[in-house]
Amino acid sequence: MMSSVEKTHVSESLDHLFRHQAGQMVSVLSRIFGVEKIDMIEDAVQDALVTALQKWPYGEPPDNPRAWLTQVAKNRVLDRLRRDKKSDSIDEESVEVPDLSDQMLDIHFSSELSEDQLKMIFASCHPAIASDSQVALTLKTVGGFSVPEIAAAYLASEDAVTKMLSRAKAKLRSGGIRLEIPAGDVLKPRLEAAMRVLYLMFNEGYSASAGEALVRRDLCFEAIRLARIIADHPVTTAPKVNALIALFCFQAARLAARSDDRGDLVLLSEQDRSLWDKRLIAEGLEHFQRSAAGDELSDYHLEAEIASCYALADGFETINWRRILNCYDTLQSGKFSPVVELNRIIAVGKVNGPERALEELSQLGENYLMTSFNFFHLTRAYFFAELGQNSQATDAYQKAADLTRNDAVGRFIQKKVAALT
Amino acid sequence: MPNFLLLLHATPNKNDLTHMSPEQIQAVIGDYMAWRKKIQDDGIYVASNKLRDEGGKFLTGANGDFRVTDGPFTESKEVVGGFFIISAANYDEAAKVSQGCPHLKYGGRIELREIEPTP
Q1: What's the pLDDT at A9?
Q2: What CATH superfamily classification does A347-421 receive?
């Protein structure tokens, strides 16, 4: 519908202001009016943004756009509540119109604002909500992402996303989920769940398997933003949260270098390191150092360490593959994952040579899920090519191509095959 | 230089607006703001205002029969969202400036009128 919208004029400082603001307003209003009114709140927030759209073109925007938008949205909810109260004479008592003084909405207190968002993160990642909906719900409520944006990121239909969100929001509407920062015994599992959701959100953005590049990039930075909120709060901060942010930062630092001008995939070995985001690497390092506090070694620690090996090496040749392999070995000694195993085998190939890697790959190939995974075949093709076994490499690339639905990866494979023949 | 009035007509399309994402809304506002800043920088901006959506009235008073009727948009599906006043040498110039207004890109219509200078 609005695909023609150009982004060129929006100044840097306003980047994603409305999206972030929408998420913040949903969080603040949910605290004030109750998260079970989520539908009414989302409508009110949309109304406020549309009101801005109709007014701001004709004059200077308000001095404090955030406060203005929040005030408009708050008034919309109040109007709705008053109207509902009037029209529903039977159930008058059940609709309470809160008398709101303005200090309740003092959004200058950014710590309170973060706290509202933190509560909304935990509500959206609540175990009562189906795990496959948690990421989408978090993006919608706290992130301010629209249904088409979520659909674009997941290569899903808008209908499917709408249905998924509607089921998830039914849990919020039912009143069974409270807006709170979990404490005591429940904190640990709830924190794990929230971190898991952010990890999935980031990976959805980072993985080159599907979706629109621009939205996927936004997903990565949203995961970082929300993880920072968790890390900044005294109750929820933990070394492993810092490990998670370090992992995100190290990975996100390479985003711009991972595809060329045409959007085609560029391998780590061929990436232009001058495109890596030094600021993100520095931030990653800072969080990585903070993650060393305490004695817990989480999977996020190990993954952050692996990512640090890539991000901090001077060049592809100086990557410390042995250290990477050690991390993967430790990861796999916990809970075995075939996808992690694939990455481990790449390190095996770098440390022990391509033959050994191919041996382990053929073992991994006995897992039927693996043979339908394009990166499995890409990895085989890579090591066959290293050994100069070009026909086998071509076959493997072909298999990978058949399993690929992302154009950029498809073109990458074509280029590789062309180079072999 | 004469002044010109740009009346920004919009077909109310609530459905479209409720489905725009915050990102899109911000981008559209950004477009309008950039255009307004441009005509300000060019020194041709005179004034602009948003008109209220609701509450327009039609007044008649022929033969002493003063009447107020609700309007003015009961007969038309279009609403004048607001107006700009710019200065330009002639209609051609004014039209050229108006052409840059994002309102057209987003499906709106602009009515351009030259303001008669008071003698």
Answers
A1: 32
A2: Tetratricopeptide repeat domain (1.25.40.10)
